[in-house]
Amino acid sequence: MKLLSIAVPCYNSAAYMRHCIDTLLTGGDEVEILIVNDGSFKDDTAAIADEYQAKYPGTCVAVHKENGGHGDACMYGLRAATGLYFKVVDSDDWVDEAALQKMLTAIREKQGQVDLFVANYVYEKEGAAHKHVVRYGNALPEGKILTWDEVGRFRVGQYMLMHSLIYRRQLLLDSGLELPKKTFYVDNLYAYHPLTMVKTICYLNVDLYRYFIGRSDQSVNETVMISRIEQNIRVNKLMLDVYAHAKIESKKQRKYMLGFLEIVITVSSILLVKGGSPEQLARKEQLWQEIKAEYPEVYKQLRYRPLGIALHLPGKLGRRVMLWGYTISQRIFGFN
C-alpha cells in the first residue's frame, strides 16, 4: 500500500499541470498520483495524463471521466486511491519538494495513529512581492498527536482549508463525504464534513502547498465568485446541515466548526453586498432568513456573533463599514 495518494483534478489544464505533477513525483515510490481528467476537450490534458501513466507506471494513474466539476473529480480520485492517506492538489498549484519529504517522514512515523495531518499553505499571488503563508502553530503544537481537547485557539478567519489537509483515506470514505457535481467552492465542504469523524490531528510547520492566485478565470476571482454566488450558498447550506446534525462532543471542536461556518457565510454575505444590485442585497437578507427558517438554533448562534452583528448593520453606512472591513482583511491576509 502507498503511504499517500494525491488526486490532481484536471480540466483543460495542459498549460500548467506538468509543473504540478513533477513536484509530486519527488515524493518517490511512497506516493500515488491520480491524474483525474474531468472531461477535458480543449487541449491535451487527457494525453498528458496518459503520458505520465506510461512513463511512471505504479506511481501515476490516469483517471478519465465525463465532466462533473472539481468536487466530482476529487471524489473519483478518492474512490480510485489506494494509499493510506489522501490529499488533493489542484492542477494549477504545486507542492514544495523539501516540505513534501518532511511530511512523508511524519506520515511514515505516525501512520495509523493520526486521522488528519495539517501543514501550511502559501498564497502564490501573481504580481505580489510578499507571499502570505497560512500557519497554524498558535493553535496546533507542532509534531504532537493531538485530540480536539488539546487543540489551542484558532484566530478569527484562521481555518484549515483543503490546501492544508491530508486525511486518512478510510476516514474520508467512512465519513460519507459526497461533493456535489457541477458546483464550485466544494473545497470548503471537503475541509468541513470529515472533521466530524476526526479524533486525532498532527501539525507540521512546513510550507507544503503552493496556492496559485492570478488567472482571471479562476473560481476564487472575486468577480467570478459574485457571478456564482448561488453555488457558494449551496455549499454553505451543506455545511450548515453537517453542523446542525453532527454529534460533536468536544466543545473546542464545536467552537472551531461554528467559527468556520461563520466565515463562509460572512463571505457569501459580503460578496452579495459587494455586488450591490437591489436583487443581490435582497438575496443577502433572504439567505439569513433561510438559515433562520431551516436551522433556527444555528441561526441564533451565528446571528449574534461579532460578524453576524456586523453583517446586519443597517443602511448604506452599514454596508460601507462591511466592505471596509473586508478590504482591510484582504490586505492583511492576501486573499483574492
Task: Walk me through what this model shows.
Mean pLDDT is 93; it is low at 332-336. The chain is α/β, with parallel strands linked by helices. It is globular and about 60 Å long. The chain has helices at residues 17-25, 45-55, 70-80, 97-110, 169-175, 187-190, 222-227, 229-245, 251-275, 278-294, 296-303, 306-310, 315-333; strands at residues 4-10, 31-38, 60-65, 85-88, 94-95, 116-125, 133-134, 165-168, 201-213. Strands 1, 2, 3, 4, 5, 6, 7, 8 and 9 form a nine-stranded mixed beta sheet that branches.
What's the gist of this structure?
With 336 residues, the protein is an alpha/beta fold.
Largest sheet: 9 strands, mixed
Radius of gyration: 20 Å
Q: What string gives the helices and strands in order?
A: EHEHEHEEHEEEHHEHHHHHHH
Overall mean pLDDT: 93
CATH architecture name of the largest domain? Alpha-Beta Complex
| Main CATH class of the largest domain | Alpha Beta
Question: CATH topology of the largest domain, anyone?
Answer: Spore Coat Polysaccharide Biosynthesis Protein SpsA, Chain A
Sequence stretches where pLDDT stays below 50 over 5 or more residues: 332-336
Number of helices: 13
**Helix share of residues?**
40-55%
Net shape: globular
